[in-house]
């Protein structure tokens, strides 16, 4: 089986070709960082236009790199939501057009399901003898748009244990960086600066730490960083101040992640005593300090921490193609395929039965 995957829900335009046994034949990602850098964040209209300009040539490039034509492909999977709607429309229309022209099934993939199943793709392509990541596992999804804890029970079967009630963690990294005059995107810049910093210099809050449940909140932490910066002597911030603030912020974020994920692990292992893995995905999963915290947490409970390689953690087409493959396998071709009347979804929770978190708005 060979599937074309298309991803356009945020600021990466991506296309990939993946086989049923988990080989990534091509994986092309065009980041729009330069377009959004002047604004210090993703501008939806700018993103949609950039997707539209690039998606056709990216699909052609992926197919050429993989050495496949439309006749070799078994299905087209495109992110159908959730995300910035202008971008999602571009990817869905492209996917539908190819499916109609080549007479292939079209699969609208939930972007979050792409992230959720990406570790099964990376484990499969890594293992020499078909090593695989079995269901169920606990997923911590931490990106610029999402911060959620979910039990992945199977394809299409998710149980959400917690979500952010305000900002996503990546967003908090990005806003912290912007306040401190660091580069965009903020996560890598904050992590770099924090290496030379004293993480105990500023006493920042740990929102939600110690509270029952697994929800997150980061807006108070962001405000505290601003106040700490304002409390310093007037004039430009010194490098050491920035480093100490970044280190203190990252330590606070790590404490919160460890606390909330610890609660989720306890709940997961109560429901599934033989559950074997904590998976972390999304752009923030690239952060080495946070990964170390999560690794310690998982080891203490005797389970593995799995973090897919960076390319599969951030937005990409391979995870969308793979989610399409998983859906085809689990549901069969007829049930997995969506009609060409599928309407792109700005909101699309993985667990529609989860109680809405107070104030969570569209982040849920
Ligand atoms: O998954 P992603 O590429 O895009 C979506 O948001 O869907 O995640 C991007 C986010 C940004 O907020 C970025 O600042 C953050 O991931 N990020 C990091 C690191 N690298 C990227 N945050 C903390 N530490 C990092 N090393
Ligand atoms: Zn994403």
Tell me what you see in this structure.
With 364 residues, this protein is an alpha/beta fold. It folds into two domains: 2-127 and 311-348, ATPase, nucleotide binding domain (Nucleotidyltransferase, domain 5), CATH 3.30.420.40; 135-310, 2-Layer Sandwich (Nucleotidyltransferase, domain 5), CATH 3.30.420.40. It is 44% helix and 17% strand. The chain is built from twelve helices and ten strands. It has helices spanning 33-36, 44-66, 85-102, 111-126, 169-179, 186-194, 219-230, 239-271, 288-300, 310-313, 318-331, 333-336, and strands at 2-7, 12-19, 24-31, 75-81, 106-110, 137-142, 147-154, 157-163, 277-281, 304-306. The protein is globular. The two termini are 33 Å apart. 5'-O-[(R)-(carboxyoxy)(hydroxy)phosphoryl]adenosine binds next to helix 5 and helix 6.
Q: What's the N-to-C terminus distance?
A: 33 Å
CATH architectural group of the largest domain: 2-Layer Sandwich
Largest sheet descriptor: 5 strands, mixed
What gyration radius follows from the Cα positions, in whole Å?
Answer: 20 Å
Order of helices and strands: EEEHHEHEHEEEHHHHEHEHHH
Unreliable residue stretches: none
Residues in helix, % = 40-55%
Instruction: Predict the CATH topology of the largest domain.
Output: Nucleotidyltransferase, domain 5
**Overall tally of domains:** 2
Cofactors, ions, other ligands? 5'-O-[(R)-(carboxyoxy)(hydroxy)phosphoryl]adenosine, zinc ion
Structural class: alpha/beta
Number of helices: 12
CATH superfamily of the largest domain: ATPase, nucleotide binding domain
Which descriptor suits the 3D outline?
globular
Calculate the mean pLDDT score and round it: 94
Strand order of the largest sheet: 3-2-1-4-5
The fraction of residues in strands falls at 15-25%
């Amino acid at each position: 089986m060979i599937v074309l995957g298309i991803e356009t829900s945020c600021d990466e335009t991506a296309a990939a070709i993946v086989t049923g046994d988990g080989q990534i034949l091509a994986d092309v990602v065009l980041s729009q960082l330069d377009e959004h850098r002047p604004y210090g964040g993703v501008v939806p209209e700018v993103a949609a236009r950039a997707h539209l300009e690039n998606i056709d040539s990216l699909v052609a490039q992926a197919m050429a790199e993989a050495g496949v034509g439309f006749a070799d492909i078994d299905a087209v999977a495109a992110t159908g939501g959730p995300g910035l709607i202008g971008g999602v429309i571009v990817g869905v229309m492209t996917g539908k057009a190819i499916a109609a022209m080549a007479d292939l099934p079209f699969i609208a993939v939930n972007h979050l399901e792409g992230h959720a199943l990406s570790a099964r793709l990376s484990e499969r392509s890594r293992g020499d003898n078909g090593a695989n990541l079995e269901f169920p596992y606990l997923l911590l999804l931490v990106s610029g748009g999402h911060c959620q804890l979910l039990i992945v029970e199977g394809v299409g079967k998710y149980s959400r244990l917690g979500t952010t009630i305000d900002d996503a963690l990546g967003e908090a990294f990005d806003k912290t960086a912007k306040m401190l005059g660091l580069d965009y995107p903020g996560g890598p810049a904050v992590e770099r600066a924090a290496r030379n910093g004293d993480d105990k210099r500023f006493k920042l809050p740990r929102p939600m730490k110690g509270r029952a449940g697994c929800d997150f909140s980061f807006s108070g932490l962001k405000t505290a960083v601003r106040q700490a910066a304002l409390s310093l002597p007037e004039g430009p911030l010194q490098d050491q101040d920035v480093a100490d603030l970044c280190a203190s912020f990252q330590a606070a974020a790590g404490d919160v992640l460890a606390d909330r994920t610890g609660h989720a692990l306890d709940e997961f292992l109560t429901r599934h005593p033989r559950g074997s893995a904590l998976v972390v995905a999304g752009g923030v999963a690239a952060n080495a300090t946070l990964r170390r915290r999560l690794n310690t947490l998982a080891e203490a409970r005797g389970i593995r921490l799995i973090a897919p390689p960076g390319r599969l953690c951030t937005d990409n087409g391979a995870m969308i193609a793979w989610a399409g493959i998983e859906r085809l396998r689990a549901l069969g071709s007829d049930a997995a395929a969506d009609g060409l009347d599928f309407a792109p979804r700005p909101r699309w929770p993985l667990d529609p039965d989860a109680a809405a978190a107070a104030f969570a708005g569209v982040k849920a």
